[in-house]
């Protein structure tokens, strides 16, 4: 028996023991990513039809949804002219400035290469509606969200220590103090640097950035909907703690599980304990 019984939950137990948020099991990564892309497209089409803005908080991790989304936008001629993508975060250099877009880990570079440059020019949103947190002006995003009338959907993943965006675990804060944190610059924890080096940088831990700028847990918690996706090997434990662990600032996603409209999509691989 492990110290925390939920880490041993089978798929059936994970789904049937009273999880703190809806957990949706899908066949594989492609199914999770396609589902996220479809929800992005449907929300935009609905708001376009009603003459409303669409405001998303968007991750670079997970990223598999973007090729499906780009294809839907181009094929269905979905206008993004009234859409704002507010990206969650960006890596910083040792001077706490954005890493250059040419850096292999740059989220700005990724979004430009994989999303914005692939969408037909007549459909893509203006550059000022492609927003990243700026270490030189951390107040901008909270003010922008308020001005736009709030965030429709926050999409994201969950880090190995429960972080959403780069809102790293901090047991020194009360849950209320943690949830009050807005966009800011912070150090990336050793655990996150290690996991991201393995997952995104071929294990090159010594060259992983040490700093980041991140949207706050406050902005995420106040989105009208939160949609999370998990698909990595170590997500098996993360998902079980998210669904059954206590609400604590030492595992930030746990503070979001009582949100009024949240779900967590996972693969059969993550739902299983073996294989």
UniProtKB/TrEMBL annotation:
Family matches, as InterPro entries: GlcN6P_deaminase-like (IPR052960), Glucosamine6P_isomerase_CS (IPR018321), NagB/RpiA_transferase-like (IPR037171)
Name of the protein in its database record: Glucosamine-6-phosphate isomerase/6-phosphogluconolactonase
Molecular function terms, GO-annotated: glucosamine-6-phosphate deaminase activity; isomerase activity
Recorded superkingdom: Bacteria
Gene3D superfamilies: 3.40.50.1360
Keyword set, alphabetical order: Isomerase
Example GO biological process: N-acetylglucosamine metabolic process
Cross-referenced PANTHER family: GLUCOSAMINE-6-PHOSPHATE DEAMINASE-LIKE PROTEIN BT_0258-RELATED, GLUCOSAMINE-6-PHOSPHATE ISOMERASE
Organism this protein belongs to: Blautia hansenii DSM 20583
